[in-house]
């Protein structure tokens, strides 16, 4: 066996092959050292083999972890996933033993969707640990788990979770067929998988909810949604999702009633603001200044009088600055990150206005746009919403307020047209409880 | 590729539309007050005065800066177009909330001016209308020292944000145009009088037939007119009771009227209810019964109002909208003709109910 295995692999220093011999039998073992836990290899194989308290052949027959491998085509795959291959040289039987040692983050804290109350622990990059969390929060015998793997090279393991009682079979079939039809080389992140599942590359809104919170996943399972866990990523995908799921922070379920309702309203207001405000600034300043109160009109006119460019150039300057600032502070290492914000904040806040590059109102507009964008609880939505303001700006340059209104209308039409795994994405009526993030679409026909 | 071409074409089409209306806010000259006067010259009858705001980032009392432009023109629209040659930025009437018509012009015809205002798209229908005395130009040139930003003072006098004067009658452009066109309801405008140089007084109203001033009310009548037309702002009232003068403040006032057709002549019954508090009262009023005081005040008020109504009737105008109510209640092809016959002989009765809420003191 060992010669064949060595032939199957390229010249790899970490591939270990031995032949062991004791009194009554000899075995060949092969494994890729970095993928396996060496301690397990010695505890389960080498030590019992050499001690010979019980015949090692008996070990192989009785302990269920030793799986008999009939098909030699699977050898490579098993080795690459951290299995040890064992060949009994007398009988010629080949067994595999999983001793995989995966490096992952140990029970991480929630970072992207943090909550003050509620569980602080996030999903793990290891599937077993994630499953542990989910099973603990959703201890139900009806929880179905199916295994898949995607990517010709990466062979990323996936788990599809659903509650058998509640799940909509059409959604489940849809997910299954989509997963098995994916043909790419590598998948490493939840977002990547989301794009592959949806199929359309150029979508404006996310239609699959990506989350790191096990409590959100447990709730979704209870509502009959399908959850996909992906190995190596601490994010899970929940589908189908509605627009209102994305606007729902998990803490809305945990905190005091009235304030959370107010927060929900504020969230919707801020999403409208972050999309429309730059476009409205152009439309009002350049087309319909009578929309302002007189005082505001005069003070804007006065503060703009130093600006040499038309209003839309001003908007583009400021938006370019704020987008680069956000992008830079995400990518920069944490130690330098604060420097970027300080420099950026100073330049944006003071210098740009004093230099007469932008008006003081524009600075307020920019900061409102940036801040209200961060209010959106789910990162993938807040990211895609960041783009939505640009088409509106273009239409407002040419058509003023009419352009903004028409643009918003088109967005609404697009939202209404969207489907998430066959379910309406923007469904408003029906049995709704937007506060729970449920739009009652899953279980209904 | 086809898609790309489509996007490019769409963009080119869009580009051809640009330039229509795109004008930055700092390239606009905001008109904050418009005055239209009678110039006295037959060939150029209209004198147009524009009060242009000079924007400043500082908004504080006394910091308002204004530029004036005046021109005589054969028509208002032409005058405004000619005025554009005098200024460096595009004129914008979007913030022109104050439209003043000179008294001389108002005595001739206001329909031309109103027509122009209604047709121009950037003049708002909520713009306040008033009469300027002696001329609109004169009134616009008054710059109160306390004004915070251009055109604010006049606007505050008329709006609900600033002073609440019981002598002031605020009429919007849309309201005025309705009264001009509606049969059975005649226009009313407040008169802004420039007293001397530094300020103005608004304490009279002018009553119009459909096109020109018919009569001007005195300040006392103006206050009463405002109360009767339910145009109520906090007011005070004088009265006598057993020889002692008293002043009362009206807190709440409701007025309504009914038309009784069966009577001959036609009877118009007006009902005015008011809740009042004493501001100046004879001593010992608190202990004495209030009933007789209320009755005396009501009687006095009734007498005064009937006199005013008769005076207005004599001029053949109808600012309260009696005719409109008549047309609504007794419709028919000749209801308007009937009303025109009935109104000059109609009788008035006023039913005033003064209710004293307190003496203004806490015992």
UniProtKB/TrEMBL annotation, chain A:
Transmembrane segments: 226-244, 264-285, 356-378, 390-414
GO CC, alphabetical: membrane
Keyword terms: Membrane, Transmembrane, Transmembrane helix
Superkingdom classification of source: Bacteria
Pfam family name, one: GerA
Family under the similarity heading: Belongs to the GerABKA family.
One of the protein's GO biological processes: spore germination
The protein's name in its UniProt record: Spore germination protein
From TrEMBL, chain B:
Domain Spore germination GerAC-like C-terminal: 204-360
Gene Ontology cellular-component terms listed: membrane
Domain Spore germination protein N-terminal as annotated: residue spans: 23-193
GO biological process: spore germination
Compartments, as annotated in UniProt: Membrane
Residue runs in coiled coils: none
One Pfam assignment: Spore_GerAC_N
Membrane topology: Lipid-anchor
Assigned keywords, A-Z: Germination, Lipoprotein, Membrane, Palmitate, Signal
Signal peptide: none
Main subcellular location of this protein, as a coarse class: membrane
Family note: Belongs to the GerABKC lipoprotein family.
Protein name in UniProt: Ger(X)C family spore germination protein
Organism: Paenibacillus paeoniae
């Amino acid at each position: 066996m060992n010669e064949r295995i060595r032939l199957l692999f390229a010249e790899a220093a970490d591939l270990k092959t031995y032949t062991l011999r004791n009194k009554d039998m000899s075995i060949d073992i092969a494994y890729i050292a970095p993928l396996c836990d060496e301690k397990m290899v010695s505890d389960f194989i080498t030590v019992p083999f050499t001690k010979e308290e019980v015949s090692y052949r008996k070990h192989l027959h009785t302990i269920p972890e030793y799986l008999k491998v009939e098909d030699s085509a699977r050898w490579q795959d098993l080795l690459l996933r951290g299995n040890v291959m064992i060949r009994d040289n007398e009988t010629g039987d080949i067994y595999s033993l999983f001793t995989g040692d995966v490096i992952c983050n140990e029970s991480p804290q929630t970072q992207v969707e943090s909550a003050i109350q509620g569980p602080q622990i996030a999903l793990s990059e290891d599937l077993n640990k994630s499953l542990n969390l989910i099973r603990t929060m959703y201890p139900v015998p009806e929880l179905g788990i199916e295994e898949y793997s995607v990517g010709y090279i990466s062979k990323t393991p996936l788990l599809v979770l659903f509650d058998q009682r509640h799940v909509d079979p059409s959604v489940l079939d849809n997910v299954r067929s989509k997963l098995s039809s994916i043909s790419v080389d590598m998948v490493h992140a939840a977002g990547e998988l989301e794009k592959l599942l949806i199929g359309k590359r150029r979508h404006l809104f996310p239609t699959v909810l990506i989350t790191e919170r096990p409590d959100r996943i447990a709730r979704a399972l209870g509502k009959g949604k399908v959850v996909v866990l992906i190995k190596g990523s601490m994010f899970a995908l929940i589908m189908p999702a509605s627009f209102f799921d994305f606007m729902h922070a998990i803490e809305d379920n945990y905190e005091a009633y009235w304030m959370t309702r107010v927060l929900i309203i504020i969230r919707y207001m801020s999403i409208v603001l972050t999309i429309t405000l730059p476009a409205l600034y152009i439309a009002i300043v350049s087309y319909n200044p009578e929309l302002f109160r007189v005082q505001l009109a005069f003070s804007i006119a006065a503060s703009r009088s130093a600006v040499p460019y038309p209003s839309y150039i001003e908007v583009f300057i400021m938006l370019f600055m704020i987008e680069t600032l956000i992008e830079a502070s995400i990518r920069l290492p944490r130690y330098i990150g604060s420097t970027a914000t300080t420099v950026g904040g100073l330049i944006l806040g003071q210098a740009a206005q004093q230099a007469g590059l932008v008006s003081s109102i524009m600075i307020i507009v920019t900061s409102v746009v940036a801040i209200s964008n961060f209010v959106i609880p789910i990162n993938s939505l807040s990211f895609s919403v960041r783009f939505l303001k640009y088409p509106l700006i273009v239409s407002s340059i040419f058509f003023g307020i009419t352009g903004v209104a028409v643009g918003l209308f088109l967005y609404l039409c697009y939202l209404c047209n969207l489907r998430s795994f066959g379910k309406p994405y923007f469904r408003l009526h029906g049995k709704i409880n937007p506060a729970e993030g449920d739009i009652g679409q899953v279980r209904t026909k | 590729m086809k898609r790309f071409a489509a996007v490019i074409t769409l963009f080119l089409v869009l580009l051809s539309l640009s330039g229509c209306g795109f004008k930055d806010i700092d390239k606009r000259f905001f008109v904050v007050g418009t005055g239209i006067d009678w110039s006295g010259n037959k060939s150029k009858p209209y004198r147009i005065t524009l009060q242009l705001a000079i924007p400043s980032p500082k908004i504080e009392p006394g910091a308002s800066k204004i530029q004036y432009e005046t021109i005589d023109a054969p028509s208002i629209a032409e005058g405004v177009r000619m005025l554009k040659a005098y200024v460096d930025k595009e004129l914008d009437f979007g913030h022109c909330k104050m439209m003043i018509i000179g008294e001389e012009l108002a005595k001739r015809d206001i329909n031309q001016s109103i027509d122009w205002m209604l047709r121009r798209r950037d003049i708002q229908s909520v713009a306040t209308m008033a009469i300027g005395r002696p001329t609109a130009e004169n009134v616009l040139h008054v710059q109160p020292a306390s004004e915070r930003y251009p055109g604010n003072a006049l606007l505050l006098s008329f709006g609900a944000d600033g002073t609440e004067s019981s002598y002031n009658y605020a009429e919007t452009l849309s309201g005025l145009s309705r009264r001009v066109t509606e049969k059975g309801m005649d226009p009313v405008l407040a008169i802004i009088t420039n007293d001397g140089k530094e300020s103005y007084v608004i304490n009279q109203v002018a009553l119009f037939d459909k096109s020109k001033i018919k009569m001007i009310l005195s300040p006392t009548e103006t206050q009463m007119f405002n109360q009767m037309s339910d145009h109520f702002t906090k007011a005070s009232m004088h009265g006598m009771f057993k020889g002692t003068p008293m002043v009362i403040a009206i807190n709440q006032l409701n007025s309504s009227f009914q038309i009784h057709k069966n009577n001959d002549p036609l009877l118009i019954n007006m009902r005015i209810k008011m809740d009042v508090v004493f501001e100046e009262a004879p001593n010992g009023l608190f202990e004495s019964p209030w009933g007789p005081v209320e009755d005396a005040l009501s009687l006095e008020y009734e007498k005064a109002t009937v006199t005013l109504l008769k005076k207005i009737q004599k001029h053949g105008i109808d600012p309260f909208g009696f005719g409109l109510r008549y047309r609504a209640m007794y419709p028919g092809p000749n209801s308007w003709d009937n009303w025109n016959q009935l109104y000059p002989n109609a009788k008035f009765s006023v039913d005033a109910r003064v209710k004293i809420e307190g003496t203004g003191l806490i015992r």
